[in-house]
Amino acid sequence: MILIDGKKTAGEIREELKKEIFQIKKENKKVPGLSVILIGDLAPSQIYVRMKEKAAIEVGLKSQIIKYPNDVEEKTVLDKINELNKNDNVSGILVQLPLPNHINKQKVIESISPLKDVDGFHPFNVGNLSSGNESIVPCTPLGCYLLIKKYEKNLSGKKAVIIGRSNLNGKPMTQLLLKENCTVTITHSKTKDLKRECLSADILVAAVGIPKLVKGDWIKKDSVVIDVGINKTDQGIVGDVDFEEVSKTAKAVTPVPGGVGPMTIACLLKNTIKCFKIVNF
Which of 4, 28, 72, 135 has the most CB atoms around its CB within 10 Å? Predict the structure, then answer.
């Protein structure tokens, strides 16, 4: 069994991005900038934002965190996004989710310029991805895709099964794998005989948020398994995949933690540079 080391791969990506940013600065006399809006005091959100800031600074991006209290008015946030949209020094804009209930998430997402939408959530980017056109791809599915490609160079004709149909992971993951000529089945909580579907997969991506859902006898021999799940349990953080069982059967599998998580942040940095290039080149 091959352990798919997302932490190592993310580190390699960051090293490449450092060189790219150095060259951009040398040729353009400016550096891509990432602005993150953080609302409220949810501990996980604060941790994620700090990790993103640290990674951005490490590779040489300009990083800005804009903090608001939990009761900030929606208009205040939308006005700030509009200001950032017009700021030439800001290449990428990210609003950390989840948002307080009184703020309309979709309105916020759609207010971000699609050219600065580093999360890839704007309908413009979602539509382009679905149409097979060039687009900003959501960071987590992009990270999963890069890990898969590292261990399976030729995906054409492979059977891929995705557990989870969210706009954040399942749907964009489907589009990425379809573009590689995979035969893709997207499953969810209403799927009948989920185990049978998983047993058909050459590539399995679990992104459903149920601790250790995928067992060893759900996995076909020599399959590649990507675990997107991050679940808090009494035993600590675990994925959607029972790693101990699945690792006995799969050809390659991501651990939790240390698999997809680091890749998500690395892909955020990649998207920020991509947004800079779209506007400036």
Answer: 4
27 contacts: CB under 8 Å, gap ≥ 6:
none
Secondary-structure class of domain 139-261 per CATH: alpha beta
To the query of whether residue 96 is one of the catalytic residues in this protein, the response is yes
pLDDT in tens, 79-135: 999 999 999 999 999 999 999 999 999 999 999 999 999 999 999 999 999 999 999
- Catalytic annotation present for 119: yes
Assigned token pair, 273: 């540079």
Q: Which two tokens stand for residue 10?
A: 């993310």
Pick the CATH number of 28-113 from 3.50.50.60, 3.30.1490.100, 3.40.50.2000, 3.40.50.10860: 3.40.50.10860
Instruction: Give the predicted TM-score (pTM) of the model.
Output: 0.96
Active site residue 52: yes
| E strand intervals along the chain | 2-3, 33-39, 62-68, 92-95, 159-163, 183-187, 203-206, 224-227, 231-233, 236-238, 252-253
Q: Evaluate whether 90 touches 35 at the Cβ level (below 8 Å).
A: yes
Domain boundaries defined on the chain: 28-113, 139-261
Active site residue: 80, 96, 116, 270, which one? 96
| Strand bridging mode 203-206 / 224-227 | parallel
